[in-house]
Amino acid sequence: MTTAPSASAESAAADQYERRGWYFYDWANSGYVTTVGTVLFAPYLTSIAEQAACGRAGTADDPCRTNLDILGVGIAPGSLAFYVVTAATLISALFLPIVGAIADRSPRKKLWMCGFAWIGSLAACSMVFVAGDRWLLGALLLFVGHICLGSSMVVYDAILCDIAGPDERDEVSSRGWAAGYLGGFILLAFNLGVVTAHDALGISQGLAVRLSLLSAGLWWGLFTIVPFLRLRNRPPVAVVVVPVEGGRASLIRQSFGQLFQTLKHAKTYPMTLLFLIAYLFFNDGIQTVIAVSSTYGEKQLGFATQVLIATILLVQLVAFFGALAFGRIAKRFGSRRTIMAGLVVWMAIVVAGFMLPSKQIVPFLAMGFTIGLVLGGTQALSRSLFSQLIPRGREAEYFSLYQAGERGTSWLGTLVFGLVHQLTGSYRPAIVALGLFFVVGLILLSRVDMRRGIREAGNIQPTVV
Which chain regions cross the lipid bilayer (predicted)? Predict the structure, then answer.
């Protein structure tokens, strides 16, 4: 009579052990997302590009107006980083679905996730060599890092469906995001000390920034070892074999064939597609706000790097609690309604950003606090909500489409931001233009019938959605 409870307890302990390992990958990659993707690298690469183009770094009062020449096309140095992210995401639209289709067929998902993570961490570590006029090297490493981040996150997100049931995913997803924000906070706090105390350490600010980039790559690579050791490999589930002429198909040929089949029959899941489109819009807005915040603060508002890092630290710390709070709120009101409320707050944020006065720290910190409240929650709940709409056995394949609009791989938002800046010479109209993404995303999300979508995907209905 005591065997069943004992077995149940052992199973629960094993589940928690694996979930904690899964949380650690959010902890690991957030070092790259915050230090490289959000705070330091975009303004640093902009300064390197401005020096190469103009012989000096531009300022808010005296920007560099000489363009870089890339294959005969003039590129404003201030827009370079955003164009690189745009290019990386356009390539991702073709590449990530193939990664997802392969992962769905592989019994070694964690190896795919960790392999891409380690390649990306190597690219991040190599950013320590970006100095002088090596803006092209910086652009290439940023491109590789974003591709590898997106690829690893495709598999990581898909594993959520393996380790958590329908009623557990909001909580598990929120804890993963919370762990990521805490990890990003700790690493950024360390980097803040290095950048702030660079004179006392006997190094230049540029070297301090490059060492911080190196630390982000090491953080990403080393902490990825934890999920590699803890996560279990599972056999593929409900994989449809696509006939290929000439005999048994290779893994890659099978994956291409299944991708075409998924796109062909996508109309079978209209609510899933509608959610994806809504997510593409509002997450483009979120990711672009995060990606351009440091450049906006430095180039438009005139803040020093130390202020920017301190503000992002505030965002990271508040987002840790915000992600956990949103998970609790979703238990009562449902994920969809909670996300929609968060999008209304995001609209207010971009309008406030347009009106922020230059060199006034308190309003800038207040905006950072508000961003932290809604940042983790909207992202964590979006991931768990989408997982309910995916047909079983195609998690990585569908999450690859999801990743097209995921953190650090937004393309339309960064494109709009870069174009508006290049046309107007100011970041203020560029930031307020991002409000359109939240408006469109909110309208589309309000039309998603979650119960219908879960039923069409053949999944178990959770208690609250």
Answer: 80-99, 111-129, 135-156, 177-195, 207-229, 273-297, 303-326, 338-355, 361-381, 401-420, 426-445
